[in-house]
Request: fold
Amino acid sequence: MTAGETSIARLGRPHAKVDVLDLVRLMGHGPTLDRLRATAIAYYEPMAVPAPLRTPEYAEAFGDDPVDHAALRDRDCVFYLHESAFHLRVGDDRVMAAQREALADAPWRVRLVLCEAGAHPCLLRPFEYLEFTDAPPVAYSGGRADVVAGHRDALAHLDRIALSDHGSRLWFAAGDLGTTRTIH
Reply:
């Protein structure tokens, strides 16, 4: 077994061929290239608005550069974010209000997990889950490749507890954290 085959076996694909993208993932440069190849992407962010959904003002106040949405244009994307992201202030009231408005009008599905949904291990850390037509899915947490099965389970849990896309958009549009907890 070659060194590349050994590394692939550790990723859970013992019979897969080593290709350049696998090697790039193993070196820690995978998420950016994988987003360009993915047909479907799911994001979960517990403490901030996911980078692809940030307004330029929110990104600047957060200390980030705005994200180019070109990589997501023809992708089936769903973004899960936790209500906690709105209790942690980024910028001023104007920045937060504009960010909520942008989420209400986002071109992708956005699903909000309310605090009242309770605690669960899958809610603790952000991740991306990417699917491809020509390769097995891959998950990233903290920018590093991670075990896919756990993230698949986390997405199933998020799907059960998050508000619907429509309910989430109503919550964002309402803009008042205290009065919209009953929207589902």
Q: What stands out?
A: The mean pLDDT is 80. Helices lie at 3-10, 20-26, 30-37, 56-62, 84-87, 93-104, 148-161, 165-174. The first strand starts at residue 40 and ends at 45.
